[in-house]
């Protein structure tokens, strides 16, 4: 049986990242989990210059790390008081590194099954704007990522949509986390087969059999959509069918990029207000 036991929770101590942590604790409240709460400090050029002329025991580095550790300890104390879940254990990690590299190092060291993190909101708008860090994690992370939009409160996961262009055949190991999420929540699953001029609908046949075998009795929707319209098609389906979570598979230079129709990750925008599960095609 697939188990989700090691969960990574990156935080920048914002309200948004705390919301994602609370979402994770509710989402996995019935699971035995080891949570790793990670804060990554990034040196400014000023600090980097200073550190070149002082020894390794200088207070600049230590002050940053100790302050971050104290903030994580405060989060854990708050969690223990509010959730009081004996099934959940917590460990704090503070790193001084590139954000994505740090996450991948933690994933490897602690055998992380799932990364759960928040996204940045665009002020004054109902849409959610992914910060460049979140996008890079989704593109380069070595583990599945569950991105929680700003302000998204936990609700029972009744209806999940998995969107795919069927550019490759799936194997069971590609979708282990998705299988576990469906199993835990007894979730209804809709498979959105998106066809464009490069990936025709008939390529979906073997995957239809795969989904029927591994996900009980999913429903299938076959939708024609150009690259430019793909996001709108998925968004409309989510709205019309009351979908609680969207799942996609990330393959380099393929679906994730086409879905959002953008070239610069810094401008990566996503307008739905439900959690997004991004799995990696290894």
Description:
The chain is built from 9 helices and 12 strands. It has 282 residues and is of the alpha/beta class. The protein has a 10-stranded mixed beta sheet, sandwiched between helices. It has a two-stranded antiparallel ribbon with strand order 5-11. Helix 4 crosses helix 5. The radius of gyration is 20 Å and the shape is globular. About 9% of the residues have low confidence.
Write the layout of secondary structure elements.
Blueprint: E1 6-10, H1 15-27, E2 33-41, H2 45-51, H3 59-83, E3 88-96, H4 99-110, E4 114-118, E5 128-129, H5 132-140, E6 145-148, E7 159-164, H6 176-185, E8 188-195, H7 205-214, E9 219-224, H8 230-240, E10 245-250, H9 255-260, E11 269-270, E12 276-280
Parallel strand pairs: 1-2, 1-4, 2-3, 4-6, 7-8, 7-10, 8-9, 10-12
Antiparallel strand pairs: 5-11, 6-12
């Amino acid at each position: 049986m697939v188990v989700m036991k090691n969960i990574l929770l990156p935080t920048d101590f914002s309200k948004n990242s705390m919301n994602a942590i609370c979402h994770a604790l509710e989402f996995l409240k019935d699971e035995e989990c080891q949570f790793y709460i990670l804060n990554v400090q990034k040196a400014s050029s000023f600090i980097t210059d200073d550190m070149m002329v002082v020894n390794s025991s200088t207070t600049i580095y230590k002050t940053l790390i100790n302050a971050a550790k104290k903030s994580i300890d405060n989060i854990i104390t708050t969690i223990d008081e509010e959730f009081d879940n004996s099934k959940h254990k917590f460990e704090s990690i503070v790193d001084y590194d590139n954000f994505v590299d740090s996450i991948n190092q933690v994933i490897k060291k602690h055998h992380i099954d799932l990364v759960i993190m928040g996204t940045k909101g665009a002020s004054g708008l109902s849409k959610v704007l992914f910060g460049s860090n979140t996008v890079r994690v989704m593109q380069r992370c070595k583990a599945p990522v569950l991105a929680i939009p700003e302000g998204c409160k936990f609700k029972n996961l009744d209806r999940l949509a998995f969107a795919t262009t069927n550019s490759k055949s799936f194997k069971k190991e590609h979708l282990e986390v998705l299988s576990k999420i469906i199993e835990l929540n007894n979730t209804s699953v809709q498979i959105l087969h998106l066809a464009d001029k490069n990936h025709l609908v008939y390529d979906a046949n073997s995957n239809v059999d795969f989904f029927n075998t591994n996900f009980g009795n999913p429903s299938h929707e076959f939708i024609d959509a150009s690259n430019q319209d793909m996001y709108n098609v998925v968004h409309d389906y989510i709205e019309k069918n009351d979908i609680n979570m969207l799942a996609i598979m990330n393959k380099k230079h393929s679906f994730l990029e086409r879905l959002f129709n953008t070239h610069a990750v810094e401008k990566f925008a996503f307008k739905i207000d439900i959690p997004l599960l991004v799995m990696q095609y290894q």
